[in-house]
Amino acid sequence: MKSTFRSGRVALACLSLVSVSVLTACGSSDDDKKTDEVEKLGKMEGKVSILAWPGYVEDGSNDPNVDWVSAFEKKTGCEVTSKAYGTSDEALNLAKSGDYDVIAASGDLSLRLIASDEAQAINTDLVPNYANVYDFLKDTEWNSVDGKNYGVPHGYGANLLMFNKKDVDAPTSWGAVFEKDQLEKNKGKVTAYDSPIYIADAALYLMKTQPDLGITNPYALDEDQLAAAVDLLKVQRQYVGEYWSDYLKEIQAFETGDSVVGTTWQVIKNNIKNKDVDVTLPTEGATAWNDTWMLSSQSKSPNCAYAWMDYILSPEANAQATEYFGEAPNSPQACEKTTDPKHCETFHAGDEEYAKQLWFWRTPVEKCLDGRTDVQCTNYAQWTQAWTEIKG
Amino acid sequence: MSHVADPSPVLDKAPAPALRGPAARPVSRLLHRRVWLRLTLLLSAPLAWMILVYVVALAALLITSLWSVDSLSSEIDRTWTLDNFRTLWESDVYRRVTIRTVSVALAVTVIDVAIALPIAFYMAKVASPRARRMLVVAVLTPLWASYLVKVFAWRIVLSEGGLADWSGIGSPGYGLTAVIITQSYIWLPYVILPIFAALERVPDSLLEAAGDLGAPSPMVLRSIVLPLLVPGIVAGAIFSFSLTLGDYITVNIVGGANQMLGNLVFVNAGAANNLPLAAAIAMIPIVVMLVMLTAIRRTGALENI
C-alpha cells in the first residue's frame, strides 16, 4: 500500500516537472531572430527556402514552359525549395516556424510579420535590380516602418470577378455576388474567398453603393460599418455553394460547374480549361494585393535569399512571374520583357492613377487607416470573429 | 566490484572469468531483489509517454483555453480569464456549429452501424471461411489508401456531372449530406471490425440450441445475438462518432460552405492566430465525448468491451 502511495507521488512530481518545462518552453526567447539589415553579403549557402503565393516560384513542374527557378539555380548554385500558401493568415503561421528564408507577403501580412519580429530589414544597396522598380511602389506603408525598408516590391493586381458565360451574363459589377436578385439565379453556385479579409470586398461594394454609411477605406470600418458589411455577407452566404482558399479547389469547382460566379485571381483563370469561364474587373474597382519579398529574421541562408530577391526583381524573371500570375510587374524594364506586349497595358502597370482605384490588402487595426480619429475601427480579430459568424 | 556475501552455490563452483547466474550479473541481481525498481524501469518509458501525450497535452489545452490573445501584437496574454468560454457560451454561432457537428457525427454513426450489422453478420456466420477471409481483406483494403485521396475521390464523385450525377442516382451537391456520405464511407471499416469480432465470439451452438428449442429467428436475434453484440456495436459507434466529431478536412473538401467544430479550431489556430480560443473550442468535443462515454458506462456496455 505504501509503495503505491509513493509511486503515485513520484508520478505527480514527474507530471508537474514535465508541465513546468512545457510551459517554460512556450515562452521561449527570440534570441535567434535578427531584424537589423546586413552590411554586406557573404558566400552562397547552396540552398534557399521560399514561402510564396501559388504561381510565384515555378520550376517547370506544373507546366514545363513555365520555369524561372531553374535559371536562378544554375546561376547562383542555390537550390530552391518552395511552399505555396492560400491565405495570408496561413502564411503568418508558416513564417513563424522559421523554416523559410524568403516570404512573398501581401499588405495584410507584411506589417504583421514586421510587428512580430519575423522580418529582417533589407539593405536595398545589396539588391541591384531594386533601382528599376517604380518609385510609387518603394517605401510604401506596407513595406517600410520607421524609415526602415523591410522588403522589395514584386508586383500587384486585383481580385477579379470570375463567371461562367453559360450561366451568368457578363457582369460589370460586384452586384453579381452581392445583390439578391442576381444571386437568386445561381443559388448554391456562388463562391467567395475564405478569409476574413474578404469582408473588405463587401465593404468596397457598400462604399460605392451606399454612400450614407460613410466608408472611405474598406479596411477602416467602425462597428456600424462592419455590421453593414457582415449583413451583406450573410445574405450572400445563403447563396454560396462553397468558399475557397485552396486555389486548386476553385479551379476544379469552375471546371465542373459546381461554382459559376465568384471572386478569383487571374492565375486561377489561366489554369481553367473550360472556355466558358471568364474574368472581369468590375466598375466598383476591387480589393487587390501588392506583394513584397521579405527576408525572414530566422533565415539560415540570407545570402541565397538576397540573391533570390535580386533575381526575381530582374526584368526577365519579374516579367515571367507576374505575367504568369496575372498581375502588374514592378518595373518599366520588366514590361518590355513580357511575352504579351500588351500585358502591362492590360494590368495598368506603372499607372499610379489606376493603382489608386485598387484597394490593396491591409491589416485592419483599431487606429483607423483612413485617418479618422473620432472613432475606433474594428481590428482583424473582430473581423475573424465576424467571418466565423457569417459562415455560421 | 567487491563480492557481496552470497550463498549461491553457482558462485563457489564456477571459475572466476565465466560467472553464470544472478551473481554474474549484478544488475539483474539488483532488479531481482528490488521489485519497485524493476517496475519503475519497465513502466517509466511508456508511462512518461502516456503522461506526455495524454495528460500534459490535455492540461496544456485546458491551461491555454484560460489565456487570451492581445489583439494588437497577437501575442498570448497569460492572465487567467474565462473570456473564451464566455464567448463560446454567448455567441450562438458556436452553439449552432456544435449541434451541427454532433448531428453529423450521430448520423454517420447510425448509418455505419446499420450498414455494418448485416455485413458483419454475413462475414461471421454465413460466409464460407474462404469468402470470410476475402471479405475481411475487402473491408480492410480502403484503409490502405490515403484519407485525402478518398475524400477527393468523393468530391469528384459528387461534383456536377460526376459519377453520382452521371449514373442517374443524382448528387446531393456539396454540403452536409455529402459530408455524412463521405464520413460514413471512411469510418465504415472501424465499425464493421469490432462488430464482426463480437459476432465471431457468439457460439454457433447457442444459435442451434435456440433453434432446437423452437425460438423463431427474430427472437434469436433479439434475445441472444443482440445482447452479445452490444459491446461490439458500442465500440464501433465510439470510433465513428469520435472520429467524425474531430474531423475538419472532409467538410472542407465536400462540405460546401458549412463549418464544423474542427474548422473553427483550425481557423482560430491556423488563421486567426488565436490559440486560446481554439483550445477552448477544442474542449467542446472532449466534453461531448465525456458525456457520451459516461452515458454508455451507465448502461454497462463498456464492461464487456
Model description:
The complex is a heterodimer of chains A (392) and B (305). Chain A has 392 residues and is an alpha/beta fold. Chain A has 16 helices and 14 strands. In chain A, helix 3 packs parallel to helix 4 (107-115), helix 7 (199-209) packs across helix 8 (223-237) and helix 8 (223-237) packs parallel to helix 16 (380-391). Chain A is globular and about 60 Å long. The model of chain A is unreliable at 1-8 and 13-30 (pLDDT under 50). Chain B starts with 8 loop residues before the first helix and ends in a 6-residue tail after the last helix. Chain B contains 14 helices and 2 strands; from the N terminus they run αααββααααααααααα. A two-stranded antiparallel sheet of chain B has the order 1-2. Chain B has 2 domains: 9-77, no CATH class; 91-304, MetI-like fold (Orthogonal Bundle). With 305 residues, chain B is an all-alpha fold. Chain A binds chain B through residues 3, 7, 11, 14-15, 18-19, 22-23, 26, 87, 89-90, 92-93, 112, 115-116, 188, 195-196, 237, 240-243, 249, 252-253, 256-258, 365-366, 379-382, 384-385, 387-389, 391-392, and chain B through 36, 39-40, 47-48, 51-52, 55-56, 59-60, 63, 69, 71-76, 91, 93, 96-97, 155-156, 159-162, 173-174, 253, 255-259, 264, 267-268, 270-274.
